[in-house]
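pinned: reference chain
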Amino acid sequence: EKIVDQTATDLPKTISTSSTYTNLGALVIPESQTPSVCTSTDRFVRILAGGTCTLKYSSPASATALAADDVIKSFEVVRSPQTLTFAPVKTTDVATKTLALNAISTAGLPITYSAKPDSVCTVNGNTLNLIADGNCQVTATSIGSSTIAPSSITAEIVVTGSAPVAKKPVSKTVVCTKGKLTKTFKGTKCPKGFKKKK
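pinned: its structure tokens
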């Protein structure tokens, strides 16, 4: 007999399972294969978290009977849904450099962020770093909990403008003479005693 699916509310909670007997009339007690989701005692199953609860019914060999084939029964403990709200700006200039990310979960759970491509944008905590112009895809994710299902939402931000290119300092030199001696010095002026070569 199938065990009906359950909801992950008001956990932990206990349900009874259908009785399973061998052909000799002995009662078979199920063993939980997913102890993080459910445990089994006698004919009762204690539900601890959302996920798949899997029970194994085994009848070992005895002095008068061979072992029976194991029977596996599973049912779902359905976690409650959550909704994420995430509406960052649709367009920004790369000169802004950073944006604060503020997604909200209806379940009040923590949210993490990721972004791609990293040539356009990267994420550090809840801060979006703008690297160059292009389309930046930012994803807000909540991994959920034992009773709340995970959820994610992606928004696209168009980054305009170009990142400023750092100018390398120009190294200037000057050729100077002193009698028959000719030397090159850094800068634009000759040291005392030297004249700028024409």
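why pinned: The chain is about 0% helix and 50% strand. The mean pLDDT is 88.
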